[in-house]
Specification:
By secondary structure, the chain is α+β, with helices and mostly antiparallel strands. The protein is 22% helix and 28% strand. Strands 1, 2, 3, 4, 5, 6, 7, 8, 9 and 10 form a ten-stranded mixed β-sheet that branches. The two termini are 43 Å apart.
Length: 215
């Protein structure tokens, strides 16, 4: 009975957090039959496996085992659970710095140390967990992938590989571009690549992970 309760609780938590069972199993290094075994077999899962799942779903081990209706989670609100009810969970959040005018998808914009910054709450996902800050895109040179006004997640990095999209500071101006062989490339064919020269002052300020909607 307890094993089937654990399986049902895991599935409900995954559903409410928009996490697939496959994603959970892969992340926690569990077999594909793990949930089935819980539901159909009497063998109890190891403490290590249950701990991995609890850490990934941000809940307590006791909650998965049915010992408490109040999981310890930093930023979620969960109502007391009855077996016949769905679990109501708010999406986990994290805070990231947000720069509104730092990345240009056009002719370039100046980036200063005193660029205004605000801090925003964003859903906690694999990509937002990897990001260090958010920038707002200005211009249309990276269309159709990025549009004017889009917000992008940036992972701070001093270098990226050729073919990846990053934030570059070139002679004091900031750009969002694809890294090429000795050039910064726009995705919009209306814009020519920016050739890099030995005398240019250029550095990479991070890798672009994805867009995100700021509410």
């Amino acid at each position: 009975m307890q094993n089937s309760y654990i399986a049902e609780t895991i599935k409900k938590l995954c559903k409410n957090q928009r996490i697939s069972i496959t994603e959970l199993l892969n992340h926690c290094e569990l077999s594909k039959s793990f949930i089935y075994d819980l539901e159909k077999r009497s063998t109890s899962p190891s403490c290590l496996k249950i701990s991995r799942i609890a850490d990934y779903l941000n809940c307590s081990v006791d909650y998965l085992l049915g010992r408490t209706d109040n999981p310890y989670v930093d930023d979620r609100v969960i109502k007391p659970v009855r077996p016949e009810e769905d679990i109501e969970i708010s999406i986990p959040k994290r805070i990231l710095p947000f720069y509104r005018t730092a990345a240009s998808a056009g002719i370039g914009s100046y980036l200063f140390d005193d660029t205004p910054v605000e801090y925003v709450n964003v859903p906690k996902t694999d990509k937002t967990s990897s990001a260090d800050y958010i920038l707002e895109v200005r211009g249309d040179s990276m269309e159709p992938k990025f549009h004017d006004g889009d917000c992008v997640l940036i992972q701070q990095s001093g270098r990226i590989y050729e073919g990846q999209i990053g934030i570059f500071i070139l002679n004091g101006e900031s750009y969002i571009k694809k890294m090429g062989n000795g050039e910064l490339i726009s995705l919009n064919p209306a814009y020519s690549p920016i050739r890099l020269h030995e005398y240019d002052d250029i550095r990479c300020a991070g890798k672009v992970l994805d867009t995100i909607i700021i509410e």
